[in-house]
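hey so i finally got around to running the thing on that chain from the lab meeting. sorry it took forever, my laptop kept dying and i had to restart like 3 times. anyway pasting the input first so we r on the same page abt which one it is
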Amino acid sequence: MTERDVYKMTQRDAVIDGFLADHGWKGAKRARLPADASFRRYERLSLGGRNAMLMDAPPPRENVDAFVAVARHLKSLGFSAPDIFAKDKSNGFLIIEDLGDETFTQLLASSKDAAETELYQLGVDVLIALHGIEPARVMPPGIEEYDAGKLLGEALLLVDWTWPAVFGDDAAPASDAVRDAYRDAWLAVFAGLDGQPPTLVLRDYHVDNLMIVNGRHGIARCGLLDFQDAVRGPGAYDLMSLLEDARRDVGDDLKAAMMERYLNAFPAIERPGFEAAFAILAAQRHAKVIGIFTRLSRRDAKPDYLAHLPRVWRLLENALADPALAPVAAWFDAHFPPDKRGLSA
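ok and heres what got predicted. didnt touch it at all, straight out
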């Protein structure tokens, strides 16, 4: 970290102190939580027996308005998103409800199989409840469409970041021909999502962002985090995000049971189409995540995420085996040989 970076952080800390003082948290004890993959950081605030969370989300890379809008909408629908206590949009600060420490990730690290099943059932039941709400009511105002253009832009992260890391250096990006072939393959595949009923897609729905909220029951027992990038899209996406986790292995039996739990709740769903959509969205997400983890290492000096690359490549290859992914699978066979997959950037 440069001297200039330290100075900027010191300046920002002074602004945070003023924000906290303005909203009744002057002198609060502040405990920083571990960093995540975004530019946001969180601190637990404690003062006079009260607890809350400070979200520091520096603009323009982060937008607290999106978090606030989706949080309030989810709460209006009966889900346990955090209450918003104070906001400073221009500086990117929020004071939000502290939902506790019991993330699914932490609980799973110390649990047995029965607890694992119970937690995943709760995660699936939240999606069943969310996707059971009619589209006109479940969508917050101004929500973006998770259309082919947006899906493609994310999938291109693999070519933009992982390709040069594996095949050369940052000065040797994929050729226009390679990039165009990749783009065309994905656009052909995304046509298979047509006809999937739209719902609210939280977009980063996995065990790191789910938690148990003590004293609540039913779906409200599941606290929701990291939903500010929510979009309007296929319901298979969040189910896939939960069951094909980039950071955690989910057993085949558990995955199959949770798929059945979800599909049994929606008997009108046409299963082959849903399963094809699940595979398409899985491949797209895994390609995106491979690109993001590479970028985190090379641009943001966060190399720890590279440890997950072998798992994410395995998940991508499993998805590519689905016939719905034939054009994309052909691109990988032609341009990204198996011995280059899973390599650290």
